[in-house]
Amino acid sequence: MKLSVSARAVAAGGLATALLLAGGAMADAASSAPSRAAAAPDIPLAGVKAHLSQLQSIATANGGNRAHGRPGYKASLDYLKAKLDAAGYTTTVQQFTTSGRTGYNLIADWPGGDPNQVVMAGSHLDSVSSGPGINDNGSGSAAVLETALAVSRAQYKPAKHLRFAWWGAEELGLVGSRHYVNRLATADRSRISAYLNFDMIGSPNPGYFVYDDDPAIEKTFKDYFTGIGVPTEIETEGDGRSDHAPFKSAGVPVGGLFTGAGRTKTAAQAAKWGGTAGQAFDRCYHSSCDTTANINDTALNRNSDALAHAVWELSE
Predict the structure, then answer these.
(1) Which pairs count as long-range contacts for 16-24, CB under 8 Å and 24+ apart, including other chains?
(2) How far apart are CA 55 and CA 291, in angstroms?
(3) Which sign, positive or negative, has the C-alpha torsion 149, 154, 155, 156?
(4) Separation of CA 19 from chain center
(5) Cβ atoms within 10 Å of 46's Cβ, excluding its own
(6) DSSP at 275
(7) Of 146, 170, 218, 313, which one is the catalytic site residue?
(8) Is 146 an annotated catalytic residue?
(9) Mind listing the pLDDT tens digit for each residue in 112-127?
(10) Which of 153, 130, 132, 152 is nearest to 141 (CA)?
(11) How many CB atoms lie within 10 A of CB 289?
(12) Tell me: the pLDDT tens digits for 178-211?
């Protein structure tokens, strides 16, 4: 049936009203739906390795190491601090003394987020005196740095407050991280909802180990590795021997990743992950050969991405 001009006008008006009402309802539904968490960006392996090259150069120019109280450690800290300051972080250098030498922690806070819910990611920056410490622990330090820089590049606005940390004198007994935790007021400790630790994540004959200290953090890491088809095992070799320990003792939920140190890779682990059975995960552990040649790129890349995934996931 052909409508008259006036009837067509009425019909058109009715249709427009219906569309407006429908559109409004859809907009209301969209605005009331929970927002999806922002996905973590891919952490560029080239960026992480560029930091490792800088740490190697610093060690080479300073007696072959980056150990506590030695000029290579302070030069390493200055390198990181300059990157973080330029990226918009508020940085704090915390000073302490042990073994007759001055040590330093570097703390970097990203602006914003709920100050009553703090997510921290950290690593120790010092090496042993016998080598440059590129896997132990340039690998963790570089990955934490590149993740912090990725936060800045994305101008990420998490619900929780983000804090990154690099500890001094870990190799002398977790001195820097203990100093930090012991000087926190009880209220400030309670505000840390998660501390994530990354100590040796690029071992040349790697395993994929996840800390089992906090179930929610453990699940976050395991879910990531399941998603990329990489099986994991519970970390036991370094249990209580790295910078998560002071946080755990203070009641802070902790977690982290590890690719193995001096223990020997079993045949079952080699079948699962590749590499060489009967050989240490890191034959250069605490040795002069822990250089940039002592890094497995695949392990470093996977763990750097897992680190960023956990930072994004746990800070929403």
Answers:
(1) none
(2) 10
(3) negative
(4) 48
(5) 9
(6) S
(7) 170
(8) no
(9) 999 999 999 999 999 9
(10) 132
(11) 15
(12) 999 999 999 999 999 999 999 999 999 999 999 9
